[in-house]
Write a structure and sequence with these properties.
5-stranded antiparallel beta sheet; 3-stranded mixed beta sheet
């Protein structure tokens, strides 16, 4: 089900969104502990309750006045009735903070006040709210429960036996952060989450499309390449990583196609090279069989040609075997510390007969060299091939020189000839496997 990269990207965006919402909610729960916003919200709710009761005309005002002005059993009943109407805890508190009546105590028939004193911290703001004095705050009861409250003094101060400073305290349990969020922030959070979710899904679809579409095209092109169709350059687009993959794919296809072309040319060249000695061997062996070599000297000449062509074929087969071993990493280099000057002189002596037959003059320019670490067999093979190639494609009367010198702490080797050389357009490809330059350039030093 989740094998599609596009679906995985979309689901990952949704998961990140939900995780972000969850972490945001947990963060709010942590930072909203005793936050003034919760107290203000509870105070606002209490104020709304009071205002709704006050809007009840004379009945509402009478309840407040009775809770302050009456005494004895009548005051208790007025306070209880006020608590029921406001659905709140009601306390009658003197100016010095003593709790005189408390509905929580009255309803529980407790002989002791739940709160003996309360710090109202009421600041009198004359002229505000028709001379009503209100201030939100929090107190803690004996059970360590927190209560938000609003303290107010109704208008109509009379003498009232010197008790005109009593205040009514309307209280409710302080909301928890979770209650505050569910009551005030749940809908905004839900709306913002819904909007963010829709935008995230749209963004996920766009990003998934930008990633998955180039990859699908790349997969289709790869299948075609596997079927032998190498004309499959893909458009380099999408995110940086996808662009790199597309660019690497195009480069790979170019190299594979070039290697396939070069390999076909190589097979054709090898077939041609093998055909020549095979034709000679077949022809001269047939002549011997048909008794055309009627004297020992002719038979010896025919046998020598057959032997030379067989040696030529052997060298070609050995080269093919070396190539196969290199491809399978079966010929690791085995460097040893050695003096290379004798090796270079031996190489020159080995190709001297070929140079003499070609009419090419060989020379050396070997500067003093310290002992170096190298694989003697591989170095012999490389320099021999270079020398033989230079001799082969240097015109008669030309010169081939082998040089060696030390510079920058390294030994340097060079093979020079005065043939036409390799065309400039072919130089970047001389180290490609199986690559040969224009076959018509035989004898002009182009290989």
């Amino acid at each position: 089900m989740l094998k599609s990269l596009r679906l995985r990207l979309i689901l990952s965006y949704i998961f990140i969104l939900l995780l972000s919402v969850l972490l945001t909610a947990l963060g709010l729960l942590f930072f909203l502990r005793l936050n003034p916003a919760i107290i203000a919200s509870d105070q606002q709710e209490l104020t709304q309750r009071v205002n709704r009761l006050r809007e009840d005309g004379n009945n509402g005002r009478e309840l407040f006045n009775n809770a302050i002005q009456l005494r004895g059993r009548e005051q208790v009943e007025a306070v209880l009735e006020l608590g029921r109407d406001l659905n709140s805890r009601i306390l009658v508190v003197s100016n010095d903070g003593d709790v005189e009546l408390d509905t929580a105590v009255l309803l529980n028939n407790s002989p002791e006040n739940d709160i003996t004193r309360i710090n109202l911290r009421v600041q009198l703001n004359s002229g505000q709210n028709n001379n009503r004095r209100e201030q939100p705050n929090v107190f803690i009861d004996k059970n360590n429960k927190r209560w938000a409250y609003v303290a107010l003094q109704p208008p109509g101060r009379g003498n009232n036996n010197g008790r005109n400073s009593d205040r009514i305290v309307i209280a409710k349990p302080l909301s928890s952060p979770l209650e505050y969020i569910s009551g005030n922030l749940l809908i905004p959070i839900f709306n913002s989450t819904a909007i963010s979710g829709i935008l995230s899904i749209i963004l996920a679809l766009l990003i998934a499309q930008s990633v998955a579409s180039p990859l699908r095209k790349l997969a289709a092109a790869t299948n075609k390449v596997a079927q032998g169709n190498y004309d499959q350059a893909v458009t380099v687009s999408g995110p940086t990583e996808v662009r790199k993959v597309a660019s690497a794919f195009n480069n790979m296809v170019e190299r594979v196609e070039a290697a396939q072309v070069a390999q076909r040319d190589f097979v054709a060249n090898v077939s041609h090279e093998l055909k020549t000695p095979l034709t000679s061997i077949q022809g001269y062996s047939q002549a011997i069989k048909d008794d055309f070599a009627d004297d020992p000297e002719t038979a010896k000449r025919f046998a020598t040609i057959i032997n030379d062509e067989a040696d030529r074929m052997h060298r070609m087969v050995v080269q093919l075997l070396d190539l196969a071993r290199w491809d399978s990493n079966q010929t690791p280099l085995q460097p040893i510390r050695m003096d290379v000057v004798p090796l270079l002189n031996a190489i020159v002596a080995k190709v001297q007969p070929q140079a003499k037959q070609q009419g090419v003059t060989l020379s050396t320019d070997l500067k003093p060299l310290p002992a170096v670490s190298l694989d003697g067999d591989r170095m012999n093979q490389v320099l021999t091939n270079l020398m033989a190639n230079a001799i082969k494609y240097t015109p008669e009367g030309g010169k081939v020189r082998l040089s060696a010198w030390q510079a920058d702490g390294m030994a340097h080797f060079a093979v020079d000839d005065n043939g036409q050389g390799i065309p400039a357009e072919d130089l970047p490809r001389i180290f490609e496997r199986f690559y040969r330059v224009d076959k018509s350039r035989v004898g002009n030093g182009s290989e």
